[in-house]
Structure formats: structure tokens, C-alpha cells
Write a structure and sequence with these properties.
The complex is a heterodimer. Chain A is α+β, with helices and mostly antiparallel strands. Chain A folds into three domains: 69 residues, no CATH class; 144 residues, Beta Barrel (Butyryl-CoA Dehydrogenase, subunit A, domain 2); 125 residues, no CATH class. Chain A contains eleven helices and eight strands. In chain A, a hairpin with an 8-residue loop joins β6 and β7. In chain A, α7 packs parallel to α9. Chain B is α+β, with helices and mostly antiparallel strands. Chain B folds into three domains: 116 residues, Acyl-CoA dehydrogenase/oxidase, N-terminal domain (Butyryl-Coa Dehydrogenase, subunit A, domain 1); 94 residues, Butyryl-CoA Dehydrogenase, subunit A, domain 2 (Beta Barrel), CATH 2.40.110.10; 145 residues, Up-down Bundle (Butyryl-CoA Dehydrogenase, subunit A, domain 3), CATH 1.20.140. In chain B, α1 runs parallel beside α4. Classes of the chains: A alpha+beta, B alpha+beta.
């Protein structure tokens, strides 16, 4: 392997490092996984990560330079959409709170996609109020024994690993009695059942934990500090949701515009005004997303990010609803109610009826729109919170 | 459009600060309330400071024509601040509309450069003689006719800032077709109907054999007028944004300090959620307004789309913000003594300026291939 240590951590230096990897591992003849591992070992997986863990301690914004170089050379990627939870949520949390040993063991197969990750946070009794969660972890020597039920888990049926938040001390107020772990999903105490949703398919799962065991070495953060660790995960989730650049008419609005253009016989003035109202909203928020990225690029992050997911959900739902009205008689049909297990979540995939139903989840998953409005009101506008009745009560004494 | 700069530059931020300081000092709500019922509802002293001392009247005018050589982006910044204060100054009529119309004529000609110089230096106030509600893509107006010897006849209603104009830029139809003319206010009959908007008055202007100077003939006049309307509509979005921002900020402050049921009313989720939604609208409005200003500044081919988008969106945001401001202030918001009504009146009147949002949506549909 050639040494790349003499190359700078600017765009030019990174391009040279990419060229080195491509020269040593021809994408046309190298096995996909071998190529991805070589890219990781060269520090070009996520350049802002530390040296030795797939990165170079380089500025994060240079990642796009690296990705573009590899893509232009026709190199395989790690199929980031398939492993989004690992990349977007598990990895930053492991990086911040994991031991050196855990980081070495977990991050490389996470990035290459050899090991899929899922997130065990939500429970039937703990949705918006995540800190109320009841899955118990009890210490047993050098390990922990876990019992409880998690829900809305994407990829649980394909995952090797999970990030997991548990209740370890029921006798203190809810935010203080939680602990965060990395759980091996392939052990006998873990049962995964599909959770069928209103579209007919099952993107998500319920996960039942019965005496599942976790070595204490797989704990992230201190015992009782699970809430703080979970905040890191969730912050990264919101960055991931608001972060992608879209072309004009990208996403849901493009689907409805296409229907409008292809079906002139269905047009009415009233539908047109509603469509253009939503087109304008979608475009305004697409521009707001560009503006947000421009702010980040000059190191002035604005509070706008908190709103991007809220705006996306509202606009997508109204667009999908409008499309069914435009489609008139065709809205009476649905493509397929049969139970499927899609590997990728695709909000704009399939037909209009599916899009309408799937978009209903946009205002629930990843923080309900109501919770996001509270966050904006309190953290951005500085309005006072509602009086809290649960702050100083031991978790075990909360009404439920 | 990938090149659009949607941020505020350091220069723009400095400009904002000096305009805001001036308005904080000279255009406080109490002053404003007293002024709107006085004999001089337009604040000429404030206008002189703003136009001459701060040099905002000629921001987008090239330096060789007596301006500052900046662009539509900086003009938009000033409008944001003027909207925030609903300042009673003829900036839209003079520095935006009349000035843009003159810039669309042949500025090498003395009859164009002279009035332009006077407007840019703040020595004279201009107004574009079209109804403020004229849609950006309206046909060239036929209200005024011009004779071959250059006198005008006709009446134009609802002219923004016309009550204080020294010179009118008048679209009129002459023997050889459409033209733009300059008419000294002393040659026009100007009357002031009761304006719905108390801080930007309209005027009805009649010309009876009024002496006029031709600024542009059939080759340039329609384009100059269209350009002025497009610029006016696109930059008005920034004024609407500034207005909405004041309404949001003022309402948030009020709800933090207003107690009912033993707690700040701002702690009730029903009200917090409404303000969050409004804040989010402003996020969209700011992006749309900046995009319009930036495309106008660069002469980008996407400017018509950007303007139609900005007017579709920001006009509604301003009205929504002003309506929420009145409602969430409760009883005090309904009084004459609280300034909220000045914002509501400006917002509602501005919503129909350059065509109501529904008209801009229809125009947008043609521009982005979503036909009727």
C-alpha cells in the first residue's frame, strides 16, 4: 500500500488520496467489499472521523469532494440509504461514547454495510415521551440482562446490531435512570416481529427482549447517563433528515406535477390553484434548505434546521392528498395491499394511494410534528414550557 | 439558480444595522400613530435622512448616475427594515418603482439621467403612475394618452406614494404607441383618497394637457415598465418578510409577559404551536424573498419564477403574521393605540400590490409548465 501521509487535508490532497486508492484497487476488478474496506482503511470513508477509524480528522464538508471523486470513477458505494441508521445515528454515538475497542470492532463493518444496525428506542408506552421508557436492564456481574419491548424498529429483521436505551434505575426521575448499550441482535433473547402498517406492508418491526444479555463493555456512556447519550443520536437523526440537497420538483411535488402534466383531462381551476400553492411552498422550503446549507458552510448554523422536517411532513402530506383528488376515479384503486417487507423506505415510490398513506407517517416518525412545534416554540422562540408534573417524580411512581 | 446566494453579506448586515438604528430612533410606534393622523402622514424628514444621509434612495443606481452602485439585494435589505417599522416613507414608489422604470430607459439620454440623478440623490421623490395593484404581467396601460407634442391626458388611480411625489413616471399611449413620460407634479392634479394602508398612502393622479418629457418610446417603454413591476413585486416580498418578522417578534414578547390563568399565555401549547407554524412560514418566506432579490440582482433568467414564487408566498405570510399578531394580542390588538393595526393594514394592502397571490400562482403555473 502506498503511503498517503504526505498529502494535505484540503480538496487537492483528498483527491490525491482517492486516486491512490483507485490505483491500488481497480473498481472494475476488485471485490465490492474489499474495495470498501480499502477506502475505509485509507481514511476516506468519513473524512471528519479520526485516523484509524475510517477518517483523516479532515473538515467534514470535504466529504462531498471524496464522494464525487469515487462516484466519477465508477467505484462501488456502501449503499448509504440501506444503512442509514448505522451511518447517521449509531456511528456518531459510538464515536463519541464508545471505548477504543468498541470503535475498532464496530465502525468498519458498519460503514461497509457488512453489519446492519437498527435503533431500539421507542416503546409502546414511550413514543413522544421517550424518557418514560420501561425496558429494564439489570446488572449481572460483567453483563446486563434486558427485558422489554421496543417498537417501530426499521431494519431489525436484517440487523446484526442495535443501539438500545434501557431503564436501569426506576427509583430516580425518568431522565436520570437510563443507560445506553450496543446490543447483539443475533442472540436468542431477541425476537423480531414485523409490524404491519396502514399501507399494507411492514417496513418496521416490534422487538421483544427476553433475558437478552449485553456485556458491560458494550455500554455507551455512564450508567444512568443514557438520556444524554440518546440526545447525541437524535441530534444526528435530525441533521440527517434536513440535510439533503434537492433539485426543483424533487420529491413528492415532482410526482404530483408529473400527474398534472400527463393528465390534462383531469385539470380544474380549483385543483390548479391548490397545486400551485403547494408547489410554491415546496419550492420555498427547498430554497430554505439550500439557505440552511449555505449557513452551515460558512459556519453560521441557524435555527432553521428545527423546522425543515416539520415543513417537509406538512407539504408532502398535502401534496399526496391533492394527487388523489386530481386522479379522480383512479383514486378509487390501490396498487397492492399484500404484506411486503421492503428493504428501503421510499416515500415517493409506488402509486398515489400508497404515497398518501405513507406520508401520514411523516408527521409521526422521527419526532411528531406536535413535539417539533414545542421544540421550536421553546428553543427557538424562547416561549415558556407547559407546567411539568413528571420532572421530580421517581420513574416507578409516574402515572401510566 | 445553483449560484443563488441566499444569505446576508457583511455589507448588507451593516446596512441593515444603520437603517434599523435610524428607524428605532425616529419611527417608534407612538410617533407613527401620531403621524398617521397628522397633516403630513409621510415623514419627509425621515425620508431625507434615509435617502440622502444613508444614501438608500440610489442604492441600485450606478455611481456614474449619482447612485451607490449596489444592487437589488441591498434594496431588499432596506425594504425588510422599512417593513419591520412600517415606515411612512416613499421608498417603494420612488427608490424602487420610479427608479427601476428610469433604469429601464436609455440612461445615456439626458432626459432620463437627470430625473434619475435627482431621485438617486434624494433631491426629488418619484412615483410610477400605475395603480399599485397592477399585476406584473399586465398589458401596457391605456389610462393616459400622449399627444405628438408631448402633453398627457388621463387619470391614474391608486398610485403608491403619489401624494408626496415631485415627479411622475407615466406610462402613456402616444400616436406611435406606448411610451414612458416624466411629468412634474406641479403639472398634475393629485388627490388623496382615504387609503386603507395608513403608512403608505395612495393618490389619484389626473393629467389634463400636462407638459411631459418622453423618457422612452415603443421600443423600450413596455420593457421598462415590466421590469419596474417585476422588481417592485420581487422586492416587496422583502418588505413583507420584515413586516412579518416584527409581528412574530412582538407577539412572542407579548405572550411571554401576558399572564392569564396564573401562567404566561405563551406557555399554552395551543398558542405555541400557532407561533411555531408562523415562524416556519417565515423560514420559507425568507428563503423565497432572498432568492427573488438575488435573481433580480444578477439578472438571472429564473427571476420571473422567483418573483412569482415570492409574491405567492410572502404576501400570504405577511397577512398571516399580522392577523395572528392582532388575534394573539387579544383585546389590546384590536385597539387604535396599539400599532398592530398599522401592520395589518400594510400587510393586507400589500397583498394585492402587483397582483394578489392567486394571480401570481396562475403566472407561476405558466412559467413552470403547470398549465390550466
Amino acid at each position: 500500500m502506498t503511503t498517503t501521509s504526505d498529502k494535505g487535508l484540503d480538496a487537492e490532497g483528498l483527491r490525491a488520496r482517492v486516486a491512490d486508492v483507485l490505483a491500488a484497487h481497480d473498481p472494475d476488478t476488485t471485490d465490492r467489499l474489499d474495495f470498501l474496506r480499502a477506502r475505509f482503511d485509507a481514511g476516506l470513508a468519513w473524512v471528519h472521523f479520526p485516523v484509524g477509524l475510517g477518517g483523516l480528522d479532515a473538515p467534514r464538508e470535504l466529504q462531498s469532494v471524496v464522494d464525487a471523486e469515487f462516484a466519477a470513477a465508477g467505484a462501488p458505494d456502501n449503499n448509504p440509504r440501506r444503512i442509514g441508521i448505522g451511518l447517521g445515528m449509531a456511528a456518531p454515538t459510538i464515536l463519541k461514547f464508545g471505548s477504543e475497542e468498541l470503535k475498532k470492532r464496530l465502525l468498519r463493518p458498519l460503514w461497509t454495510g457488512e453489519e446492519v444496525w437498527c435503533q431500539l428506542f421507542s416503546e409502546p408506552g414511550a413514543g413522544s415521551d421517550l424518557a418514560a421508557l420501561a425496558t429494564r436492564a439489570v446488572r449481572d456481574g460483567d453483563s446486563w440482562v434486558v427485558n422489554g419491548q421496543k417498537v417501530w424498529t426499521s431494519s431489525a429483521h436484517t440487523a446484526q446490531w442495535a443501539i438500545l436505551v434501557t431503564r436501569t434505575d426506576p427509583d430516580v426521575p425518568k431522565h436520570r435512570g437510563m443507560t445506553y448499550f450496543v446490543l447483539d441482535m443475533t442472540q436468542p433473547g431477541v425476537e423480531v416481529r414485523p409490524l404491519r402498517q396502514i399501507t399494507g406492508e411492514a417496513e418496521f418491526n416490534e422487538v421483544f427482549l427476553t433475558d437478552a444479555r449485553i456485556p458491560d463493555a458494550q455500554r455507551l456512556g455512564e450508567v444512568g447517563a443514557g438520556w444524554q447519550v440518546a440526545q447525541t443520536t437524535l441530534m444526528n437523526e435530525r441533521v440527517a433528515i434536513g440535510g439533503n440537497a434537492q433539485p426543483r420538483e424533487g420529491g413528492m411535488v415532482g410526482k404530483v406535477a408529473e400527474t398534472w402534466r400527463n393528465r390534462p383531462e383531469l385539470r380544474t381551476p380549483e385543483l390548479r390553484d391548490r397545486l400551485l400553492q403547494l408547489w410554491a411552498e415546496a419550492e420555498a422550503f427547498r430554497l430554505a434548505g439550500s439557505r440552511l446549507r449555505q449557513q452551515l458552510a460558512v459556519g453560521q448554523p441557524g435555527p432553521e434546521g428545527s423546522g425543515m422536517k416539520l415543513a417537509f411532513a406538512t407539504v408532502a402530506q398535502r401534496l399526496a392528498a391533492l394527487e388523489l383528488e386530481i386522479l379522480d376515479e383512479d383514486a378509487l384503486r390501490y396498487d397492492d395491499w399484500s404484506m411486503r417487507r421492503p428493504e428501503l423506505v421510499d416515500f415517493t415510490g409506488r402509486e398515489a394511494g400508497y404515497r398518501y398513506l405513507r406520508s401520514k407517517g411523516n408527521s409521526i416518525e422521527g419526532g411528531t410534528s406536535e413535539v417539533l412545534r414545542n421544540i421550536i416554540a421553546e428553543r427557538v422562540l424562547g416561549l415558556p414550557s407547559e407546567p411539568r408534573t413528571d420532572k421530580d417524580v421517581a420513574w416507578k411512581d409516574l402515572p401510566r | 439558480m445553483t449560484n443563488a446566494d441566499l444569505l446576508y453579506s457583511d455589507v448588507e448586515t451593516d446596512l441593515r444595522a444603520s437603517v434599523r438604528d435610524l428607524l428605532t430612533d425616529r419611527c417608534a410606534p407612538e410617533t407613527l400613530l401620531a403621524r398617521v393622523e397628522s397633516d403630513e402622514p409621510c415623514d419627509r424628514e425621515l425620508w431625507r435622512t434615509l435617502a440622502r444621509d444613508l444614501g438608500t434612495a440610489g442604492l441600485a443606481v450606478p455611481e456614474e448616475l449619482g447612485g451607490q452602485g449596489a444592487s437589488a439585494r441591498e434594496v431588499a435589505l432596506v425594504l425588510e427594515e422599512l417593513g419591520r417599522a412600517v415606515a411612512p416613507v416613499p421608498f417603494l414608489g420612488s427608490a424602487v418603482l420610479a427608479t427601476s422604470a428610469l433604469l429601464g430607459c436609455d440612461t445615456a439620454a439626458a432626459e432620463v439621467a437627470d430625473p434619475l440623478r435627482r431621485l438617486a440623490g434624494g433631491e426629488a421623490v418619484g412615483a410610477l403612475a400605475v395603480p399599485l395593484s397592477t399585476m406584473t404581467d399586465a398589458a401596457f396601460p391605456r389610462d393616459v394618452t400622449a399627444t405628438a407634442d408631448g402633453t398627457l391626458d388621463g387619470t391614474v388611480t391608486s398610485v403608491a406614494d403619489g401624494t408626496v411625489a415631485d415627479v411622475f413616471v407615466v406610462p402613456a399611449t402616444g400616436p406611435d404607441g406606448p411610451g414612458l413620460y416624466a411629468v412634474d407634479a406641479s403639472a398634475a392634479e393629485v388627490s388623496a383618497p382615504v387609503s386603507f394602508d395608513l403608512t403608505r398612502r395612495i393618490a389619484d393622479v389626473s393629467f389634463r394637457g400636462a407638459a411631459a418629457t418622453r423618457l422612452a418610446g415603443p421600443d423600450r417603454a413596455p420593457g421598462a415598465l415590466e421590469g419596474a413591476l417585476l422588481t417592485g413585486a420581487g422586492l416587496l416580498a422583502s418588505e413583507q418578510l420584515g413586516l412579518a418578522q416584527w409581528c412574530l417578534d412582538e407577539t412572542v414578547e407579548y405572550l411571554k409577559n401576558r399572564y392569564q390563568f396564573g401562567r404566561p399565555v405563551g406557555s399554552f401549547q395551543a398558542l405555541k404551536h400557532r407561533l411555531s407554524d408562523l415562524w416556519l412560514e417565515l423560514v420559507g418566506a425568507r428563503a423565497a424573498a432572498r432568492y427573488a432579490a438575488d435573481t433580480l440582482a444578477r439578472g438571472d433568467a429564473d427571476a420571473p419564477v422567483a418573483v412569482a414564487l415570492a409574491q405567492s408566498y410572502c404576501a400570504e405570510t405577511a397577512v398571516h403574521a399580522a392577523e395572528e399578531c392582532v388575534q394573539l394580542h387579544g383585546g389590546i390588538g384590536m385597539t387604535w393605540e396599539h400599532p398592530a393595526h398599522l401592520y395589518l393594514k400594510r400587510a393586507k394592502a400589500s397583498q394585492v400590490a402587483f397582483g394578489a397571490p392567486g394571480r401570481h400562482r396562475a403566472a407561476l403555473g405558466e412559467l413552470v409548465d403547470l398549465p390550466a
